[in-house]
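Okay, can you check this protein?
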Amino acid sequence: MESTIQPQAIPTTDFHQHFQSLIELSSDSLGSSILAVSDQWFAPAESLLKPHPPLDLRGQFGPNGALYDGWESRRHNPSHDWVIIQLGVPSGTIAGFDIDTTLFNGNEAPACSVYALDRLTPPPDSPDDPEWTQLLPVVPLGPSARHLFKIPETTKGYRYLKLNMIPDGGIARFRVYGHPIPVFPAGRCDLASVLLGARVVVTSDQHYGVGSNLILPGRGPKSMDGGWETKRSRQPGHSDFVIIKLADAGFLDYAEIDTNYFIGNFPQLVDLYATVSDQMVPDLNSEWTEILAKSKLGPHQQQYFQLTKPQEKFTHVRMTIYPDGGVKRIRLFGRRTAGCVGPAEIPISDLSVQEEQGHIIPTSVPMKKTGEALRRLPILPLTRAGFGLYGSVIEAHLDLRASPAEMRSKVVNFGTATKLDHVARLETGEGGLPPSPNLCLFSCQPWTPDHTSPGRLEWRLKGLERHQFSSQTFIPLATHLRTADQTERDQFNSQPEGQYLIVVALDENGKPNMESLRAFLGCKSQGISYSKNIWHAPLISINNRMDFACLIYETGDPRVDCELVDIHNVVCELDHAGL
């Protein structure tokens, strides 16, 4: 279907003025892909969707001729070549194009046009489908140049695009700009996801990697590429920051900060502040609220942090790193204010949701049950950074560069093993009778969740215990995956078999400090060691029986060795959508 759209040619010098507020929907970083192509004899069409600028391959040849970083077809096409692209977002509105012929000189496509299809299923496999709608009429292209075209933003969303190359030749990159039409899941989701419409709106420095990479899907390339990285700082007290506009206003529960492949250049510390603004970029006088105090980061790993102020609504989050460095991804999990659950949707059947000033309280906020406040505690993946206040995480890094700097290693066993020293601190203290080490075995049966729903499991705590004069170490008796590949390890550790729930709290005057209460999800390749005097729930196996070797110092007096308190007002939520 032909259209009457009149495109506006934009000089490349004005790119930021016209395209800065838009999202590149066609990038393969968002999951966009090639469905069909008429011809790609000299260079593959998939290169059109690469996020980085075209590489200079001059002087290099393959079996079919000179190499180019782009899409190039055969000569002498009597009609035209075409490629069909599926966007990574479910659908998106379209507002502009960047058609780049960089390094194609003498073999560039002389002209092109763009069509779109709003049908979700079935995907198109023919360039002649009658439902194709023209978005960009035939426009001329020149050699080795970017060609920017702005159109009135479409009122409907599209999933598929067709680029016609008239008649043949080469195009290096095809960038489509617009806005994703979000499909928000029920309950908790990543409100910093670009797929839902989040944006990085301010970046203090992006010398090596742009800030917008932070909110892309996945964990990025297996290198330092594809993240946010700042230049080295030379001034004491320096910091760098980004500001993220959330996909929608919401209540934030926890954050994931991923330093994947940033090993010698990860930031030392990070903090998070949030605010409310109806503007793309908050005013300079906006009031920012701390939701994560300065916290240590580690190399080459996903780190999870429970956030404060889960009852407050926010629209923007500022992440500050100290003093500089690189971060691959940030996720901010919470619930939209527009999607707060109503009373009929509260999982625990004996609860009633209260309203304050006409607003339903989100599920991350304490709720009232006949004078009892119920706390809903998100279960976060177990990491050294998150668990550090309560003890140690015992796990092997086959890539030893990701191990903490203070953990010394050496090769032993005639070169067949690596020994890591002091992976956990074993503690004991005087409680009257002299303590003795007890190496014991725990065989833990799975606890049935108090509630199950699609994507979520919930357990209501029964109590906490502490060992005032001893640490307590648990090592799962399970097979480890013998691979250093991060993707394979993630898949192995995310299997339901071999997962267990850990709930901990600091002590305050002989009682659990409920403000410090945290819940973690351990896996079969991780052990833990509680520091002495840490309150904790019994280990809760999730799906199957788990056996643990346990080391604890005991006096033989049960009143000294283990103290119990009842806890009935805490529900732990395992949200599979978030993890």
About this structure: The helical segments are 15-19, 384-387, 486-493, 558-561. The first strand starts at residue 8 and ends at 10. Residues 189-340 form a domain with the Jelly Rolls fold (CATH 2.60.120.260). Confidence is low (pLDDT under 50) at residues 341-371.
